[in-house]
Every structure is written in C-alpha cells, then in structure tokens.
Specification:
The protein is α/β, with parallel strands linked by helices and about 210 residues long. It has 7 helices and 10 strands. The strands form 3 sheets. A 5-stranded antiparallel beta sheet has the order 6-7-10-8-9. It has a 3-stranded parallel beta sheet with strand order 3-4-5. A two-stranded parallel ribbon has the order 1-2. Strand 6 and strand 7 form a beta hairpin. The longest helix is centred in the first third of the chain and has 13 residues. It is elongated and about 65 Å long.
Amino acid sequence: RLARAIERRMKVKVIELDGARADAIAMQLDTALVLNGDCTSEDLLREEEIDQMDVFCAVTDSDEANIISAMLARRLGARKVMALINRTAYVELVQEAGIDIAISPQQATIGSLLRHIRRGDVVNVHSLRHGSVEAMELVVHGRRPDSRLVGHRVEELPLPPGTMIGALVRDGTVLIAHHDTVIEDGDHVVLLVTDRSRVKEVERLFQVGVLFI
C-alpha cells in the first residue's frame, strides 16, 4: 500500500523476503521494482545502491528486522531511514541509534484518539515520553473580542504553566514563535504541554465565543 501510494511520484524499490508474495506485490504495482530478497542483507543493499537512496523505510512485521535493516541502510549511506516499531519500549532507543524516524502505530493511534476527544479545533495530538507530555497543533479562530489569542503577542498570552509555543504555520509557511509574534486568525499553533493536567486550560484558551461565526 505504501509503494502504491508513492510510486507515481518517486522511484520505488520494494524488498520482499517471500518469493510468492513478491510476485503478488509486483502484479499490484505499476512502476515500482519488486525485489525478492532479505532487507537485512548488506550485499543486496549495496547492489541496489542504497547510498543513492533518499529514504529507506523498513515496514516488515518484525521490529528486529526493521531496526537492523534501517541501521544497516544508514551505515551504508541512505540519506534518511525510517522504521516501523510496534514495541513502544524500542521507539526511543532506536532514535538514539541513528534511525531518523521511528513509526509507532500505537502512538499514532493514541494521537488520533486524543485528537477526537480534545476540545477546540485540534489538528494533531502526539503523546510523548510515555504519555507524560503532549504535543498539540491547534487552529486559532475568532476576532479580538471573541478570542484571547487573536491580535495578541506570544508574550501576552495567558498560557498555563508548563506550556510552550514552538511554532506557527501561517498560509503554509512555518514561523518560529518569538515573544513579539502576533497571533492571527487561522494560524496553526504548535504547543508542547509538559503538564498534562493543564491540557483542558489550553483547549479552553483556543475556544471562541459562542456568537463567533
């Protein structure tokens, strides 16, 4: 599914250990090249010029194979490596081991659930540090009379203790939030909430008056 989603925009190679499955996958793809082999094989990765690859993404059903192959791809010169990790205990460890992005389905699911149960216009929520910290992306709405954010500088915002604004996304451009940055309607604000007991205060801060249209 991943290969199918990106093969028209990128040059894709898929490595599959099972020969029959490799044949079946090849029938489902249009331009991607399917290789029957072991993703942890140094000889195979070298033969396929892993050092010329922009991204190596390990998404097998084995955490160990994903970790080993991603670390090997990194050592052989891949520009960025990603690994699917199901065991949450491995996630922080592999990022320290040189893997650029550890993809955790559990954390992604938690973030999706949190996004639905959080109030306000929440775009994304990520649970960090085993759930002790939340990274939130919220959209600012309203006019100055209706919102405690719009038209105010970052230093003026009544942020709860343990809450920091890291960046804004405005009209598709990422802006680093400084003390004198003025919040505008439609801004996407990225916050780090280190005290989860304050999350409800953050949500209330981003809510507008009931008469706002």
